[in-house]
Amino acid sequence: MADGKKIPVLNSMEKSRDTKFLKSYTLNYTNTEGHEKVYEMVSNFDYDNPKEIGLKASGVVIVGYRGEELLLLKEFRMGVNRFIYNLPAGHLEKGESVERCAERELKEETGLRIKKIEKILPPSYAAPDLSDSSAWVVLAQVEGEFCPQAEEDECIMPLFADIEKLEKLLEEERFSGRAQLFAYFFSLFGSRLFDGE
Questions:
Q1: CB 104 within 8 A of CB 88
Q2: Which residues of 31-177 form beta strands (DSSP E)?
Q3: Within 10 Å of residue 43's Cβ, how many Cβ atoms?
Q4: How far is CA 196 from the centre of its chain?
Q5: Chain centroid to CA 129: how far?
Q6: Angle between helix 163-172 and helix 177-189 axes, rounded to 10 deg
Q7: Which tens digit of pLDDT belongs to each residue from 137-159?
Q8: Half-sphere exposure of 5 toward its Cβ, with a 13 Å CA cutoff?
Q9: Running DSSP on this structure, what letter comes out for residue 145?
C-alpha cells in the first residue's frame, strides 16, 4: 500500500521485440481494483525478471554551459518528425564510467570538452509512462570549438544560447522536457544556477 492505497502488481512480462538499442515488453499486471491488465513498454535492457525493471540507468545527459551561455543541440528527432532543442546525451558503453561517457558523448555530438564537472545528479527517468530509460545528469562547464561528429543517421547542430536567446527560443521553439526546464531556469539565473551545493 502507498498512502493507504493499493498499488498495481506486476505479474509477468514477455519480450515482444528486440533491437540493438530498444527492447519492447508486454507486461501483465493486476490493477488497484484487482483486475488483470496488459501494458506495453520499451527498455534499453534485456530482462529475465520483472523485478529488474527500472533499476539500471542506460546513459548520461550533459547540461553544459560556458560563462553565461547554455549549450543546446538543435536536432531532428524521428519520434516527433521535427527539429527540437535538446541537451547532449548518450548511452553508456560497457564498463564506462559516467564521467567518461559524458566526455565522449559531448565530444562526439559537439566537439567540445568538459572543463569542470560541477555535479552529477542521480539517474532520472525520461518518459516513465513508456519506458524505464534513465540517465545521470552531468552539470558541467564546457570549452572548445564546435566540431560535431557527422553520422548519417543524426542531424545535430550544437549552439550556445545566452539569456536573451533562451527567452526567445522558449517562446518560439519545441524542446525536450528536461532541456526546456534547464533552459528556463538558466534564463532566470544564468550560471548562478550551478553555484553551490
A1: no
A2: 36-43, 59-66, 69-77, 82-86, 89-91, 113-125, 134-143, 156-161
A3: 22
A4: 23
A5: 14
A6: 140
A7: 999 999 999 997 767 888 999 99
A8: 7
A9: -
Cell of 165: 536567446
Among 19, 34, 27, residue whose Cα is nearest residue 50: 27
CA end-to-end distance (rounded Å), the chain: 34
- Rounded CA gap, 173 and 167, in Å? 10
Question: What does DSSP assign to residue 82?
Answer: E
Please, are residues 37 and 64 in contact by the beta-carbon 8 Å criterion? no
**Cell digits of residue 37:** 491488465
Q: Does the global pTM surpass 0.85?
A: yes
Of 34, 5, 33, 28, residue with least CA distance to 16: 28
Nearest to 90 by CA among 166, 161, 21, 183: 21
Is 152 one of the catalytic residues?
yes
Q: Which listed residue (14, 33, 145, 152) is catalytic? A: 152
pLDDT tens digit sequence for 58-105: 999 999 999 999 999 999 999 999 999 999 999 999 999 999 999 999
Q: For residue 184, what is the DSSP state?
A: H
